[in-house]
Design brief:
7 helices, 169 residues, mainly alpha, elongated, single chain
Length: 169
């Protein structure tokens, strides 16, 4: 299976399982809505589990970014505000994950998949809007070297940015 095929089939589940995918994506959302959901052993998959995995990656990526930035004491106030806003957004994302089905056997119809994608994107936009002011304030107090570290794409198979799967949130 090609990386793109794997991405699209995984994205079908992620499209409604976790709104993190909607950020910084070059994958056509209608393509995602048409893709078949990934099937685990037995022909089922867990939107809840996939969403929780994506949330865990975002949290882990934030810890990685903090370590890589080597923040100075005078930058910690801005970091702490960003971290607090991120934690609040993640709490809402976790509640969204908890509301998803633990297991799905049947593929939702096209209209249902499109509606799920719309709901996920709305949730992701709300999360971005909640965190963005504190991220902008943090970015303003970073040194040029720290900004370069934050701006640098984090690698993934095929050279794609990992940011869509867990960038600074």
């Amino acid at each position: 299976m090609s990386v793109r095929s794997l991405l699209l089939t995984t994205a079908a589940g992620l499209a409604f399982a976790c709104p993190a995918f909607a950020f910084d994506s070059d994958v056509d959302m209608l393509e995602i809505a048409q893709a078949a959901p990934p099937a685990a052993a037995g022909g089922t998959f867990s939107p809840k589990s996939m969403c929780q995995d994506m949330l865990a990656r975002r949290i882990g990526n934030r810890a990685y970014i903090k370590a890589r930035l080597e923040l100075k004491p005078e930058q910690m106030t801005a970091w702490n505000a960003f971290e607090k806003a991120s934690d609040e957004a993640n709490t809402k994302s976790n509640a969204r994950c908890a509301a998803l089905p633990a297991e799905m056997k049947d593929r939702p119809n096209y209209v249902d998949r499109l509606s799920m994608e719309e709901d996920a994107m709305k949730a992701r936009v709300a999360s971005i809007e909640a965190v963005k002011p504190t991220l902008v304030a943090l970015y303003a107090v970073l040194t040029p070297e720290q900004k370069a570290t934050l701006d640098k794409p984090r690698g993934m198979a095929g050279g794609r940015e990992m940011r869509r799967h867990g960038g600074p949130r």
